[in-house]
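sorry for the late reply, my laptop died twice this morning and i had to redo everyting from scratch. anyway the thing you sent over, i finally got around to it. pasting the sequence first so we're on the same page, its 266 residues, then the predicted structure underneath. double check i copied it right bc i was rushing
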Amino acid sequence: MTTFCMRACLSGTAFFAGLGLNLSAQAHDELHFSHPLISESPSPDTKVRLNFLYLDVDEDGEKSKEYGVSLEGEYAFSPSFSIEVDAPFSIVDPNGAPNIDHLGSIEVGFKFANFAFADHGVLLGYGIAFVLPTGDEESGIGNDHLVEIEPFFNIGYKRDALEVVAFTSFGLPINQNQGEEVETEMGYNLSFLYHVSDRVSGLLEFDGGTVLSGEEDGATVINITPGVKVKPTDNEKFELGAGISFPLTANREFDVRAIFSAFYHF
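ok and here's the structure:
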């Protein structure tokens, strides 16, 4: 079953890649979106991104702090197709217990863009990501046996200095252990970015997810993140970004989350 699913997904990826490359001739270079802090840009891009994360967590009365760093690389083969790899590493600092550190679950994504409505400032996007079992489930950092398949869809709207991006994904785990419950989840993001000047942009983002099946069926988490992106030098390829996240729902993954990112576009 696992082999069949992987083959089907890879075949679908190849088909959409061909479709995306055919559309590239119609691409509009001016319709390019800046990368948000939490969400994903609908524009295929060639970049390297380094993220630093801090989370203050209170789970069932047990407080801990989490520190993370992730390295993300993306290569655009055309204006309408790119491949992306994200490798996270986390350190958990539970109160009164030794620190735990481990590589998280590496994610490989294939991103496509459709420029059919580019004249109206609209970019449609879709793709698929594979979350690999490179983590350590016992420590709570990533997963060590599940492969998660995440088809995703997004839409970007750009007008003057404003960029709006909406994103949704569906997590479908495979390779469960015998008797392990299947947990599926829908994720969603909404990002508003405004270019205050050539060097400064303000952001307001919403991210969250809803469990569709499994032990926590129906549980929903929504977070809000105000942030800023700046170009600190004359080199426009280099950007810095920072934001602070707060939960809006009773269900929460953290009390406070801080993110700092460095981007370099090629």
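The helical segments are 2-23.
thats about all i looked at so far, will dig more tmrw
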